[in-house]
Amino acid sequence: MDDRKEINFGPMNISFGSAFRLTCSLLLFPVLASAQGPLMQQPQDSLDLMTQMWHALPAAEVGQVGLAAGSLDPSEIPGSMQRLSSKMLAKMSYANPMQTLHALAGLNLVEEDGFGLRPNVGMRGSGSERSSRITLMEDGILMAPAPYAAPSAYYFPTMARMESVEVRKGGSQIAFGPQTAGGALNLVSTAIPDEQLAGRVRMETGSFGNQQTHTAIGGKSRSWGYNLEWMQLASDGFKVLDGGGNTGFDKADLVAKLQWTSENGQHLLRGKAMSSEEESRETYLGLFQADFDETPNRRYAASAQDLMATSHNHFVLGHEWKVSDHVKLTTEAYQTRFERNWYKLDRAVDSLGQKIALGGVLEGGSEEVLGWLRGANTPQGAGLDVKANNRVYGSQGIQHRGRVSWGGERQHRLTFGMRVHEDFMDRFEWRDRYAMDEGNMILMLAGDSGSASNRVESAEALAGHVQAALHWGRLTLTPGLRHERIALSRLDFGDDLQRTGDGALRTNRLNVWLPGLGAHWDVVDDTWTLFAGAHRGFVPPGSSPDTQAEFSLNVELGTRISSPAFSGQATLFYSDHQNLLGADLTASGGTGSGDLFNGGASMARGLELELVTDFLEITGADAFFDGNSHMPVRLSYTLTQAEFTQAFESEFDPWGSVESGDALPYLAPHQFNASISWQGPTWSVDGNVRAMSAMRTLAGQGELLPNQSTDACQVADLMLRWFPGEYVTWFAGATNLTDQTYVVARRPYGLRPAMPRAWRFGATVEF
Description:
- Helices cover 8% and strands 50% of the residues.
- The chain is mainly β.
- It has one domain (6-766): Maltoporin, Chain A (Beta Barrel).
């Protein structure tokens, strides 16, 4: 793509060349600042809102389960790292992870249901379908239901109970995996309190029957520590079902943590047990354009039976051994089981038995079938098939990592790790035939369990990595190497519903080496640094031996500024993907087979900007408030240009007939987020604005077509908080304050709306 090519975002036009010049100007900022004298000092209570957020990464903020664990200095982290602290998460207290993650640059986000129950998160143009192309973790443990065999994240950890969020991109991904083409996302759950007894109760209510209850209690006494946590989220739903009915969800998490530390502090044992249950009346059925224009929050009668039921259980047992001041070893054994049945409308069938895809109907296909979806009677012999997407996932493994340091005052460090892992996905699905009668779904024929899909996908993997941090004066080099040895298989039993036969077996094996190199240069002490890196990215293929793994060359160049009054990070990135992998998911408009397939080559490049400051401090306006008020500001912006670099034909509808230069679908060229607060001694006003440009829904070039794109959006949220005492916080606010209506997706079947304005009220008690 030519540097002069522009992408429109409202009134703003930014080219890649302009972005490069902007980054160069940021590189010079510390020089100009130092020429004007030292920056103003910030009071201690504002530091957490700035440098402690993610740039300075002080030792106290780097948790044992964080992605930066083992890195005692920012120079030892190759590539860009971002972090949202507990205070940042508490500002808006979003339950929807998509709203929270908008604050981070470099993430590609696609909304779906308005609640963020099944987020679509990508990084640096890697693709966002079901967050399958990033490494998703909770407390450093893989959390996709089957990270190797079926990485689509139909389970996503509950954001509302998290203590912090960490993102690693660039060469730092070598320590994680298996997906290393985009980045790693780690959600850090509530830690065991340092006090003998501490707890919190948070209750919230609001529009559409939205409810949230979060309780946690724990403490430490001598060698023992514990934390018990319960969270429940519920809503009646903001969509209105034809004929009436609930369109919301109910989700509950229970988490228990136990920890023991030896008297000399050398050994630490910790255990974690978690259980999560969900019932959500969610559907893949969207709206026809004319219906969306009239009533965007409508739900067709044909989706009345749609229901997702899930059960998730997760266990971890870990041991840390501080062998000496120079050697530390950590070992964790984990096991996860996830069961789900998403019972949802799948297709229509006419009176001749011909199967009709719903996507085509909602794009202007059969008017008669569209009438059935709206509630018109189906004729004799015709019907609507509701598929029971019944699956069981499991994963388990042992991972070991260590840190060895040596040298003088600024010690060199070697980190290493190994993981033995296995996972599976068991599909046992069926379809039930319904007739539409006077707007009601009537069961006509129940399908046989397993008749729609009857197979087991499994994976075994041995992964290892080694990464060094070598210091020479102001220069730090971080070479690294990752190795993945993976065996993938599928056992398809077909019509053998009792699974008494051998089934049809296919396998795919691979053995890959993934090198990387990072460099970090302290230009002005720890205030202004430059970093650069390159690594080989990787996305595992499916079990088909005809599908090849996706590899990519990923390069980045960036700078960090960390001072008492101003922090920032700017990163230019470039990725060249070969054997690009696509997934045939219903969620992305495919047939739902789940197969991975190769789709030629692609390129992604862009810019990530993040700035954090206190406006009153940096302007000196705090003098008018006697230093009792602060106005922390956090800005992030992402420019992403991603396109195919090879022509090919695909049966996958969002790709279709691809020409070189076609932009990838469902990647917003521009994303922006601004968080601004005004904090007084006993109150705060917290505002958040997020904006996103329109996205293509089909691969293509030139101007966006209205029927092949989402809507651009600018959404404002507001939260008012009052602290009448040391332990109590009252709050009230609203999301989508201006009640903006816009299309967030056109997949898989029809237009899907964002959540309208929602009011929120509640209180938090801490002790």
